[in-house]
Amino acid sequence: MKPITARELAQILGTTVSVGDREVVVSGGVSTDTRKLPDHSAFFALRGENFNGDHFARKALENGAVVAVVQSWEGEAPPSGTAVIVVTDTLLCLQQLACWWRKQLDIPVVAITGSNGKTSTKDFTAAVLSKRYQVSATKGNLNNHIGVPLTVLSTTPEHTAAVWEMGMNHSGEIAPLCEIARPKYGIITNIGTAHIEFLGSREAIAEEKGTLARALPEDGKLFVPAACDFNEYFRQRTHAMLIPVGNGRGLVRAENLRFTGDGSQFDLVIHGETPVSVSLPVPGRHMVTNALLAAGVGWKLGVPPEEIADALQYAVLTGGRLRRFDYEGVTVIDDTYNANPESMAAAIDTLAETPVEAGSRRIIVLGRMGELGPFAPAAHQRTGELAAARNLTVIAVGQGAEGIAVGAGDAPYFTDFDEAASWLTRETKPGDAVLFKGSRTATIEKVMHAAFPRTSC
């Protein structure tokens, strides 16, 4: 965000400065966390069920912020050279400020949603666009009703393109994010069963994710996997051009796909362009699709195929997403960021297609999947069945994962993380490949770090 005075900030929020220096300048952006507070920033005191940001407003003003936006202010005047703006709803005002700033930005915005694969697709897309643009991209998991406004507000006048994630777990959450972001380009990575506990069906999930399709303008572009069974549904609900991508089909596609020890190679074929060879540094068929979605965006935003291929080859993905490392001859694959039935299936396929030495094992260590509600028992058992059918050695860990062990034919099941790590330390041998996956609440990475300690992972 560009520098503005406290008075100007209050005007944007439809109010006035309550107390303090009206002309103090906010030049350090916006923050909601006193632990990560840039100098000369504006602190928005958000409230939740278990916290009240107003209680930290004075601390924020004493530690770098020059303006505090709060819902109540009592007691002494703020420190010299600072100001306080009292509003009815700090979250609504944060979103209002983001809407105002987005209107000042004349840049192409790519919005990404889907049941899984959002972050890796964002990473690939940002890498591709960085060949020709200064890219504002979502950091970490800032993809919800708080994170998207913060991401928008972190965008500067020097940025020339944006790639922003949009997450949800309840109906009605994507629409306000689209109103803030105002994307021209959209990516829907897939429609799975993540958050089905709250939405009830894949059709309801598609309806919510499809909010992005409906938000795109007539000159916009919507990129979807060619294999998605909701593509016609999205086509009927968007004014934008729908562009399918996929392995062997679509306007942007991968041909001659082959897997290597640490990734894949394929020919990137884009309609009307000369094919180019791509070496993708991360394994998995689903990662190829994510890379193709990014390639499609790059194509429509003027990045030549040769530069797209180069960007994909050197893209760095956010941690916990199929990151590989070697531990005393064992190939360890860290896919612990999150999990749902579709991403579990993709991880199973990825490990099954991972080359190992003759006589070595492919071991998959799985934790529970969250937000499945009444669908959870069947989903966990199907995951175990799928892993066993792909000839993987299955280890289930933690409360809620016992159904995976049952589905895999009474595979080893540990409630204790240390016991699981001890089993792996005892049983794995050089040449084996071990993949770890589970929902964030499963904290499967604890087993991985205990069994295969690595300070840099």
TrEMBL record:
GO terms for biological process: cell division; cell wall organization; peptidoglycan biosynthetic process; regulation of cell shape. GO terms for molecular function: ATP binding; UDP-N-acetylmuramoyl-tripeptide-D-alanyl-D-alanine ligase activity. Its EC number is 6.3.2.10. One of its GO terms (cellular component) is cytoplasm. It is found in: Cytoplasm. ATP binds at residues 114-120. Residues 112-297 form the Mur ligase central domain. Involved in cell wall formation. Catalyzes the final step in the synthesis of UDP-N-acetylmuramoyl-pentapeptide, the precursor of murein. NCBIfam families: murF. This is UDP-N-acetylmuramoyl-tripeptide--D-alanyl-D-alanine ligase. It comes from Luteolibacter pohnpeiensis. The lineage of its organism: Bacteria, Pseudomonadati, Verrucomicrobiota, Verrucomicrobiia, Verrucomicrobiales.
